[in-house]
Amino acid sequence: MKLAGKKAIVTGAASGIGKAIARAFAAEGADVVIFDINALKAETMVAELQQRGRRAKFVHCDVGDSGQVAAAFREAVAFLSRLDILVNNTGIIRQSSVVDMPEADWDLILRTNLKSVFLCSQQAARQMIQQGGGGRIIAISSIHAVLSEPNCAHYTAAKGGMESFCRTLATELAPHKITVNYIRPGATYTELTIPMYTDAVKRALFERVPLKEIAQPEWIAAGAVFLASDDARYMTGQHLTIDGGYVMDGSLPGAAYWKE
User: Fold this and answer.
1) Domain 7-242 has CATH 3.40.50.720
2) pTM of this prediction?
3) pLDDT for 151 beyond 90
4) Is 246 designated active site?
């Protein structure tokens, strides 16, 4: 029960990594408010958390809209009574080369994946400063903040911007004992990514990823529990990479620099 008595908001928790984080937080003793635009999936998730004995609530919120974010935080804090943890998880992806990319796609990805982190973190920080006692702000980034991903330049730009933003926010909030960290997941099975993992993609990943697996969302959620807990009290402005060794590995699959 690493999060016993804690009060958390998780954005985009109706599915994928966010859903796994909400479950993990509840299992560790936290009450959870879910921000999402998919009411049916979010309400199903809330019912599950309540069955586990936790207080939980769904708040419909487009996290790229400042007015909706401010109203959602007021509703969430009224329900929770305080706020200890925010997880910025909401994210979407589109695919097109830069030369063919519609401007509308660029704007949508930056609004949903980056602007939302600013809007939600700002509201969370204001609440945490006002109530005192510190807090935790966590963002779900990607290994593609530091690795190129062809046909996803808007996505990689948003994740890189998120990380730079989090480091600066961590410095600003440190005097208030509010930590800000971010997770870089590697390949992970979610509703968003499963259609992308064709047999050919999986074969290529298993050659490239030393642990030769694609992560389950629960493996990423375990990292969020750590960052939200007192175990990570002396960690801020940092990344936690959970990628099966993808980024660290410089080997050449199927080749060697020396003769066997």
Assistant:
1) yes
2) 0.95
3) yes
4) no
